[in-house]
Input
Amino acid sequence: TKWDLAAAYPATNFHTENLAQFISDVDKASGGKLKITLHANAALFKAPEIKRAVQGAQAQLGEILLANFQNEWQIFGVDGLPFLADSYDASMKLYKAQKPFLEKKLAEQGMVLLYAVAWPPQGIYTKKPVNNAADLKGIKWRAYSPATARIAELVGAQPVTVQQAELSQAMATGVVESYMSSGSTGYDTKTFEHLKFFADTQAWLPKNAVIANKKAFDALDKATQDGLLKAAAEAEKRGWADSEKKTGEYIDLLKKNGMTVYPPSAQLKADMQKVGETMLKEWLDKAGPEGKA
Output
């Protein structure tokens, strides 16, 4: 059986490397019965299209950034709320609370959740250091999810929607002058060639989820299904450990490439926490009883 896996990040990104290992584990576990081809760096589908592609069986597997789909269903975006869960431990607790809801929702949409892995904590990339939220007023700010667009609105920045695969180009042409993301994205996109400062706010840890088309999954024999699920559980464990380990490595790489990494000032932290509180209130209003639960 041949499956395609659509992914949006470069082959060298730790999420993609984890996918490659997962594929090789599935091959072994299924005794070569299930062969998966990895399409990295949005080669098969762009990031926002991957979920629908898996739902419609254009690809049997996909890796998605859950927070991208918050407008469709609020719980997809709970890990994109600033300062709700801002450490690996808190993120794992949030994931465990979110997981049964995710599994149920994806099943209703004809998909299976295989595993999810957090990105390193998010900070703010800018051309000059930022001391408070007012310093972000009017700045061209990359938004990649409803939450990052909302942050821009709340601090008075101008949101511009740009996916990771187009980010280097957007910075080079001045379309984007600032954004919030992980050290990993900053390194992968060579942000240090364009923006020189990174405020290490550790604001949230969004997750990538690997999802399968349910019909394709159901068509596998029991042994292959079990092998796939076992490989997924191992990929999840390995992915979280890698993400945490690499957090410091990415920060060091940014510094090595000439970026100034600094802790947020008390004022910036207080300003961003206020943004987080506003967004959590809005989220709870929209997410209803499931969100409250």
Notes: The CA atoms of residues 79 and 206 lie 5 Å apart. The longest helix spans residues 222-256. The chain has a mean pLDDT of 96. The two ends are 40 Å apart (CA to CA).
